[in-house]
Amino acid sequence: MKLLEPITLGAIYLKNRMVMAPMTRSRADNEGNVVPLMSLYYQQRASAGLIISEGLNISKQAIGMPFTPGLYTNEHIKGWTEITKTVHEAGGKIIAQLWHNGRAAHSANKNGERPVAPSAIRIENQKAYTGFGWSEFETPDELTHAEVKQVIADYKQSAINALEAGFDGVELHAAFGYLPNQFLSESSNKRTDEYGGSIEDRSRFILEVMKELIAITGPDRAGIKLSPSILYHGMFDENPVELYAYLLKELNKLPIAYVHLMQPMFPIDEFAQYPKDVVEAFGDLIHKPLIINAGYTRDTAEQIVKDGKAQLVSFGALFLANPDLPERFRVNADLNKPDPEKMYAGGDEKGYTDYPFLK
Ligand SMILES: Cc1cc2nc3c(=O)[nH]c(=O)nc-3n(C[C@H](O)[C@H](O)[C@H](O)COP(=O)(O)O)c2cc1C
């Protein structure tokens, strides 16, 4: 299978083209420190060509959900050093996904600290998950210009921390309505400084962050995850094609390692301006290796890689439930089903490290 052939992704040699998609599993402790079980979880999945870590909060301000790990204290770095070492010893590669939730957060998960965002606009028609159940989203505080600069500096520091912890690279989480996505989208960004307004100005935050990340990692070790056709967390644009075409054109100019693109995951029929197939809409505009994601199976993944429309495919739920997914694809074995109840549940190994390997 083409999917099982090696590839060099930017500066990183991978033994196959199957990527474990970033997945928040909410197993860290209250301080965002990793626990030993997390090492086992990642080690079990090291047969992936590349693992992208669950979203790692780049600062205290970045936190959105309970029990999510951080990458901003010495203790965090120490914890992740163990995990990257375990993955490398098992023959795998692992990239840190850098995460800032922005307004997709709740003060109940942040010791009372209020969420921040490009503009003071609340997420409507969706609930926030807190350690105490579901709640309305709060109106975030608008980041001042100086605070925007500080967030960019926090991303930079998190890349320094990622390298110190032994990660092979970093990925900016700019998808699914989190902070970078909030800068991009006209529904969440009404700023009047150079970070809001035109498409160029709304793209500026992401491009500045990517430049800072690359300055730390060196060329070809920093990637970006985007979801142009996902309206989750109140993302909405009149002209998403023009927006993402501009952003992708500018990203092409930077020595980024890859673009990680999500297909739409929710129905978008009523929004005619949103492409139903992001590879058809944007594939030709991307001059970097493309990791395609969302809903791919053994056959559809193999086909898109064979067609040369994507170089790699990332799998979320399938890797969650099948630690040996590449081997299962190789022999075309049956797959374990993921248990949705245990996806985020804090605590023990159930639905985490107890999914069986092939006999
Ligand atoms: C439990 C769970 C947690 C997730 N957490 C993250 C995350 O932290 N960062 C991210 O970019 N995507 C996250 N995702 C989305 C996945 O990376 C992926 O885009 C999505 O599952 C679609 O791929 P799939 O159809 O192969 O599962 C998560 C998905 C799941 C199932």
Automatic annotation (TrEMBL):
CDD domains reported for this sequence: OYE_like_FMN
All residue ranges annotated as the NADH:flavin oxidoreductase/NADH oxidase N-terminal domain in the record: 2-332
Gene3D superfamilies xrefs: Aldolase class I (3.20.20.70)
Stretch forming the signal peptide: none
Taxonomy, superkingdom: Bacteria
PANTHER family noted in UniProt: NADH OXIDOREDUCTASE-RELATED, NADPH DEHYDROGENASE 2-RELATED
Name listed for the protein in its UniProt record: Alkene reductase
Origin species: Flavobacterium azizsancarii
Organism classification: Bacteria, Pseudomonadati, Bacteroidota, Flavobacteriia, Flavobacteriales
